[in-house]
Design a protein that fits this description.
The protein is an all-alpha fold. The protein has helices at 33-62, 66-89, 105-112, 124-151, 154-160, 164-176, 183-186, 190-211, 222-239, 248-254, 261-264, 283-310, 318-338, 348-357, 362-377, 379-386, 390-409, 420-447, 457-467, 470-484, 491-496, 498-501, 511-517, and strands spanning 98-100, 344-346. Strands 1-2 form a two-stranded antiparallel ribbon. The model has no long low-confidence stretch (mean pLDDT 92).
């Protein structure tokens, strides 16, 4: 009988990793101080895009000019610094930047168009102040949603039922759901946006392999280098008069002297509570803002999970997620008190930057928060950086949002991809998460109102806000299907990957949770981890 040694299969699947390997500096470690400061400034630079874009959109609708716009940007930057420090010290303790949320734009626009402000039509400054006071009141009320869901523990209950299969659509569409902010905005000034994108990809992905160096220099500072080069190029084009005869939209997108911030910003100004006056309260505004707070909460959970992956930490236990959401609510409350005009959320682009740089250090993010506070007070210096054309930021988003999406896809390793149940839940939730918001957006553009058009404007806004969020729609579909479809079949637990995350459902079940997420100064006694 012819025989021989048994044939050995040389191919093996990649091993499952609860913590992402290849991260140079994890959550609790830090680069040397000079490098950490530069990386912190880079994180500050990345979050500037959203910080400038949202007030640029909202303030003119409220009746404000360049002076008011500069003050709102400074205020949003100031509270973002405070909220980031709170989140990294006593919240999730993950390396996340807490900035402005796009989810609050629809309620803010609706409030600014309310007929009760028509009487200030010939006094734009007074109209701005009255509108901002109304938005402040709505934000203060809406913050209670995040505070209660977080600190009372409803988020903890939700997170205990969340499996890797449910987390994949949540995290993936937290990144992919913002695709409209990427190339469409980049293309508004293609001669600036496209070079930025090419330089970032070339420096971060190709140069390290070409030079064969183990020192992570080019990929770690690719964003800073690309922004500096293209911003300088934009200054040259502006000074040379390249956009002199272009359309107003092209000039706003491409020129570096059209933001109006440098001349409007004061040299030194410290934002203070109720700077626009005492808040006013309206039930309809608060109702719509509460829906936006819920959406921001969901999207922040996606960012928290992605940030834990890129900082080489374990999955945040439910008690940590609920603690982070509670402090996010405190952040939204501060936004309302200071008059930032928008609520707080975890920054998607900064979570992506963790993956690009492979530096998931908490200290780096805290340094970036210090830059936020510094430049919010020294207005002229912050205004110079805020004059960077938005297509440059859009080019960065194409890479950074993609990293967050890929963090969600990385959880596929925990699921049984040979299961038809898994395939259905995964594909259906991702498809609906993209398709439903697209329908709501197109309907709004063509009809001037959303598909839900009842006699109640606040209810219409609530529906528009919730179903315009890709991550929110995806997690609603995936979570419901994962908890109900085939729940009596014992194999579904293994197919969804629940057994891999079982040890992280309780804070004390894995020693690594205390290593990454314990609060300083023995503060855990105030925030029970169970």
């Amino acid at each position: 009988m012819a025989g021989g040694p048994p044939k050995i299969d040389e191919f093996h699947p990649h091993p499952v990793k609860e913590q992402l390997p290849g991260v140079d500096f994890c959550l609790n470690s830090s680069p040397p101080w000079p490098e950490a400061i530069i990386l912190g400034f880079q994180h500050f630079l990345v979050m500037l895009g959203t910080t400038v874009f949202i007030p640029t959109l909202l303030v003119p609708l409220m009746g404000g000019g360049n002076v008011e716009k500069a003050q709102v940007i400074e205020t949003l930057l100031f509270v973002a610094g405070i909220n980031t420090l709170l989140q990294t010290w006593v919240g999730t303790r993950l390396p996340v930047v807490m900035g402005g949320s796009y989810a609050f734009i629809i309620p803010a626009i609706s409030a600014s168009h309310h007929r009760r402000f028509y009487r200030y039509e010939f006094n734009p400054h007074q109209r701005f102040k009255q509108t901002m006071r109304a938005v402040q009141g709505a934000l203060i009320v809406a913050s209670a949603v995040q505070i209660l869901l977080g600190f009372i523990g409803f988020v903890r209950i939700f997170a205990r039922f969340l499996s890797p299969l449910g987390a994949i659509p949540l995290v993936t569409l937290t990144g992919l759901g913002l695709y409209a902010l990427g190339f469409p905005n980049l293309a508004r000034c293609i001669e600036l946006g496209l070079p930025t994108l090419v330089i970032v990809v070339f420096l971060s992905q190709y140069v390290p392999y070409m030079i064969g160096s183990k020192r992570q220099v080019f990929d770690r500072f690719a964003v800073l280098v690309s922004v500096a080069l293209v911003w300088g190029f934009a200054e040259i084009l502006t000074a040379a008069g390249a956009y002199k005869n272009k359309s107003p939209l092209t000039q706003i997108s491409c020129r570096t002297d059209r933001s109006g911030l440098i001349s409007a910003a004061p040299w030194i100004r410290v934002p203070y509570p109720f700077q626009w006056g005492g808040p006013t309260f309206n039930g309809g505004d608060a109702f719509a803002m509460a829906a936006a707070a819920l959406v921001a909460l969901v999207e922040s959970m996606g960012v928290f999970i992605a940030a834990s992956r890129y900082s080489s930490a374990t999955l945040p236990p439910p008690s940590v997620l609920t603690r982070g959401v509670g402090w996010q609510g405190i952040g939204t409350l501060l936004n309302g008190i200071f008059g930032a005009g928008i609520g707080s959320t975890a920054s998607v682009e900064n979570a992506g930057l963790l993956g690009l740089t492979r530096v998931g250090s908490r200290r780096v993010i805290q340094i970036s928060a210090a830059f936020m506070l510094f430049f919010s007070v020294l207005g002229k210096f912050g205004a110079i950086l805020a004059s960077i054309p938005l297509p440059i930021f859009a080019a960065l988003y194409c890479v950074l949002f993609a990293y967050v999406a890929s963090a969600g896809l990385s959880f596929l390793q925990f699921c049984n991809l040979n299961s038809f149940r898994t395939k259905f839940i995964l594909g259906f939730s991702l498809f609906m998460g993209l398709s439903v918001p697209q329908y709501f957006f197109e309907y709004l553009i063509t009809s001037g109102h959303g598909p839900v058009n009842t006699g109640s404007t606040p209810f219409n806004n609530v529906m528009q806000v919730i179903f315009s969020s890709a991550a929110t729609v995806a997690i609603m579909v995936a979570f419901f299907l994962d908890c109900t479809h085939g729940f009596r079949d014992g194999s579904t637990r293994l197919d969804s990957g629940r057994h891999w995350w079982g040890r992280f459902r309780y804070f004390d079940a894995d020693t690594r949770s205390a290593e990454f997420y314990s609060l300083p100064y023995n503060m855990n006694r105030f925030f029970p981890s169970y």
